[in-house]
Specification:
- By secondary structure, this protein is an alpha/beta fold.
- It is built from 24 helices and 13 strands.
- It has helices at about 30, 35-45, 65-75, 90-105, 120-125, 125-135, 140-160, 170-185, 200-210, 230-240, 255, 260-275, 285-295, 315, 335-340, 355-365, 375-385, 390-400, 405-415, 420-435, 435-450, 455-460, 465-475, 490-500, and strands at about 1-5, 20-25, 50, 75-80, 110-115, 165, 220-225, 245-250, 300-305, 330-335, 345-350, 480, 485.
- Strands 1, 2, 3, 4, 5 and 6 form a 6-stranded parallel sheet that branches. Strands 8-9-10-7-11 form a 5-stranded parallel sheet, with helices on both faces. The protein has a two-stranded antiparallel ribbon with strand order 12-13.
- The longest helix is centred in the first third of the chain and has 18 residues, at about 140-160.
- The N and C termini lie far apart (about 70 Å).
Length: about 525
């Protein structure tokens, strides 16, 4: 926000209607037409939403309500301290508000000392001392109290790490500021959603695994059945460790987007690894060349979310050798064979929730609290048993039953025993759809006849292709094998039964008897 050095009072009807990345505080007569203008122009060129008002918005030195709201909604504050900054009551009041927002909302404040010494700002020496002495003349008690707030805010701001404009080229300082801001904006945490249960356990296990591979390129594979929480865990670990890397990128939903959106995926990846700079590419081949060059010269963290075929990474990061040492690649997938093919040296299978975690997650969605209401307790436990630790099922079922009468709960539970919930069914069926006909047939046979049976016994019954098919099902997390026994999540088994009822013919006759 600019302030006039003539201390005149002018009106403004400025209305703030959107959030800003950066809020600029400066005094107009010192820097409006030079440094601040260069800084503002560069910020906007980088796509950084920046608030700078070109009006002189002093109304007796008070912060207008709409500008106060803009400050509260800004992510980063740039304060350009210059020779005449402290002569403006408007700037000083604005500074008090900025420090207040910083402390309340943990926002970033970056002081810029434009041809002034930080100690002058901190201790109110030089022009800052003269300005406060000017304000103190004929001050009543209320104004004296306000001056003390100004002193406190000046001291706190000057104690922060900042940038200095002295005898160097101003463009160098502007570039430094842009780099700082882009790193901060790119490190904004991803939204992992609400009512997340058990995430700390996953993070602890993953960080322990990842610490063993710090001296080389680490490829971390997070795999599990659909709805297990792979993407949520990937977002959470990204939020935890991204600040340790020079640059980072999280690419969502690779499987679907790679069908038609490769160029946009490349653009997003470059935006992350170029520290927020926009580098426009005209075709996929150009993007691939640029990505490979950038990955090899920076220590990066990249997350590829929901990959089920290696070819989906062909134009993004075809090989881990593209990456600089000490970089980390995280891939989420339903197919652990894809992770092995890419060269994952750290694999993490997402386990189902234990009973206590499952009850808590279900209750958060069904009752907006972490335990069931007493009258619904038995019904809640029955639904939790049905979901069998699958987070998606607990969330969907809990949300669908929120606010419903007990009789509606009983009816819903009855229905679930014969007909799966379609939202859950559709997510689980994605893995089934990725199988070939032989693998689909073996899956349905296990769902109908062989759950809990010995792997080698089932292989002998189903024929020479069975062992390969069983391995494919395990890779896709549709079955698990423990002590050679074939196991399957209850909801995945129910999906298989429903596929049979819908009359899907996968080429094996036995499953039609189910």
């Amino acid at each position: 926000m600019a302030s006039s050095c003539t201390h005149t009072i002018t009106a403004s009807s400025t209305t703030i209607s959107r959030n800003y990345d950066v809020f600029l505080s400066f005094t107009g007569c010192d820097t409006r037409k030079n440094f601040t203008d260069h800084l503002y122009t560069t910020l906007t060129a980088y796509g950084i939403r920046t608030f700078r008002d070109d009006e002189e918005l002093e109304k007796g030195g008070d912060i207008a309500s709409d500008l106060s709201r803009a400050m509260e909604e800004s992510m980063i504050f740039l304060i350009v301290f210059s020779k005449n900054y402290a002569y403006s009551r408007w700037c000083l009041n604005e500074l008090v508000k900025i420090i207040e927002v910083k402390n309340q909302k943990e926002r970033m404040v970056l002081p810029i000392f434009y041809h002034v010494n930080p100690s002058d700002v901190r201790n109110q020496w030089g022009s800052f001392g003269e300005a406060l002495a000017y304000h103190k003349r004929d001050a009543n008690q209320e104004k004296k109290e306000m001056i003390q707030k100004w002193r406190t805010a000046l001291k706190e701001a000057a104690n922060l790490s900042g940038c200095h404009v002295d005898n160097q080229y101003e463009t160098e300082v502007v570039k430094e500021i842009i780099d700082i801001i882009m790193r901060r904006l790119n490190n904004q945490p991803l939204n992992v959603g609400k009512n997340v249960v058990g995430i700390d356990v996953h993070l602890k296990k993953l960080k322990l695994l990842m610490n063993t591979e710090l001296n080389k390129v680490s490829v971390v594979g997070i795999y599990g059945v659909g709805g297990a929480g792979k993407t949520t865990i990937a977002k959470a670990i990204y939020n935890e460790i991204s600040h340790q890397y020079e640059c980072s990128s999280f690419l969502r939903n690779i499987k679907e987007r790679s069908k038609s959106d490769i160029l946009q995926l490349q653009q997003e990846l470059l935006h992350g690894i170029l520290k927020g700079k926009f580098f426009r590419i005209s075709n996929i081949d150009e993007g691939t060349i640029m990505i490979r060059r950038c990955l090899s010269s920076n220590r990066v963290l990249v997350v590829f979310d929901d990959v089920d075929e290696l070819k989906q990474l062909e134009y993004l990061a075809e090989e881990k050798d593209w990456f600089e040492s000490k970089s980390t690649i995280i891939i989420t997938s339903r197919d652990k064979q894809v992770l092995a093919q890419y060269g994952a040296n750290i694999s993490y299978e997402v386990p189902k929730l234990n009973k206590e975690e499952a009850v808590e997650l279900f209750s958060l969605w069904a009752f907006k609290q972490n335990i069931p209401e007493e009258v619904y307790k038995n019904l809640s436990y029955s639904i939790v048993d049905y979901a069998n630790g699958l987070p998606l099922a607990l969330k969907v079922l809990g949300a669908s039953l929120f606010g419903k009468k007990q009789s509606e709960w009983e009816s819903a539970l009855c229905k679930l025993k014969t007909t799966p919930h379609m939202e859950i069914y559709n997510v689980l069926k994605i893995s089934f759809n990725g199988l070939d006909d032989m693998e689909k047939g073996i899956f349905l046979d296990i769902a109908c006849f062989f759950k809990g049976n010995d792997k080698y016994f089932v292989s002998r019954i189903l024929g020479p292709y069975a062992e390969h098919g069983i391995t494919a099902l395990e890779d896709r997390c549709l079955i698990t094998i423990s002590k050679n026994m074939l196991e399957m999540h209850d909801l995945i088994q129910q999906m298989g039964w429903d596929i049979i009822r819908r009359g899907v013919d996968c080429g094996i006759l036995m499953h039609m008897m189910c």
